[in-house]
Design brief:
The protein has about 200 residues and is an alpha+beta fold. Helices cover about 15% and strands about 30% of the residues. It binds a DNA duplex (13 and 13 nucleotides) through strand 3, strand 4 and helix 5.
DNA sequence: TGGACGATCCCCT
DNA sequence: GGGGATCGTCCAT
């Protein structure tokens, strides 16, 4: 992906639903042991202040602290006793908002991603490599240590790409939540096979 | 100090 | 389509 630049800080400081929508089509890059694991973001959800479904709804705690950092950091949380999920922090410091990355389409080092998910992926389709928030974290080696990483650094970052036409973007309510229903803050690429169900 | 539960995934039916 | 795995976080005793 020669010539593509990292998204600047200013990209992340904008309203969270705008960031969620515009992250579609961008390249999520993970540098791990000298390898460049890359996937195109195809599904994302916005979590805003005043939203009962957001981890930040209860206020600032040790767990959700990174959500309140300046936009352009990575908030990684642990859930269900075994899974990690990755979020892009948005807006200015002191505001607890973020975008959950729910799915990516593998682009580069796909064989490494298969190996990272080997235990459970042995006889599954290519789609199941990264069609969910915890699956893509496993495929890209994103875990507890990556919580709080600066997306303008060298370990995890996002490369710019042309904005997708609005005709290729769809919206829906968010997945797997009970509070805050009705908000159509899930964005995904129409007809892309890696979008979760 | 304890218990309820979760922005999920996988395997089984 | 349903349930079990599995444990950190948070709040109520």
């Amino acid at each position: 992906l020669p010539g593509l630049k990292k998204l600047p800080r200013s990209f992340y400081l904008r309203p969270t639903v705008v960031v969620a929508r515009e992250l579609l089509g961008k390249y999520l890059v993970r540098i791990y042991k000298g390898q460049r694991l890359i996937g195109t973001i195809v599904e994302a959800e916005a979590y805003c202040e005043g939203d009962p479904a957001s981890h930040s709804y209860i206020g600032r705690t040790k767990r959700n602290d990174v959500m309140f950092w300046e936009g352009g950091h990575l908030y990684v949380y642990f859930t269900y006793g075994m899974h990690f999920c990755a979020n892009v922090v948005t807006r200015n410091a002191g505001i607890g908002e973020a975008v959950l990355i729910r799915a990516v389409e593998p682009v580069q080092e796909i064989d490494v991603m298969i190996r990272n998910r080997r235990a459970s992926h042995s006889k599954k389709s290519a789609v199941e490599l990264t069609n969910g928030p915890a699956k893509l974290c496993q495929a890209l080696c994103i875990g507890r240590k990556e919580n709080g990483i600066d997306l303008l650094g060298k370990e995890v970052f996002i490369l710019d790409a042309p904005r997708l036409p609005s005709s290729s973007i769809r919206t829906s309510t968010r997945i797997g939540i009970t509070d805050g229903k009705g908000k159509k803050w899930r964005y995904f690429v129409k007809r892309n096979g890696w979008v979760s169900r």
